[in-house]
Description:
The protein has no helices and seven strands. The protein is mainly β. The strands form three sheets. It has a three-stranded antiparallel beta sheet, with no helix packed on it.
Amino acid sequence: xxxxxxxSDRRMVTTDGYLLADGITIGQECTAGLITISGDGRxxxxxxGQNQQQEAGQITLARFVNPAGLSVRRQESLRRLRCIxxxx
Length: 88
């Protein structure tokens, strides 16, 4: 499942159009299938006809100990449920 897309300026945005990270821009000769997000959030891409990946930026990732304690606020936004308490 892809929860992001490229906007008209080739920036990575959520499906609702919010910027993903701090202005990650993808080269003109790259299609979405050539974009990689590593396990630590590094975004890289390969332009058509090129063999080498270029690093575009990094997305801050978060892991939740209890994902059941979150509710969906909007399509890409979560909030903590009151009955769960504060996390550390």
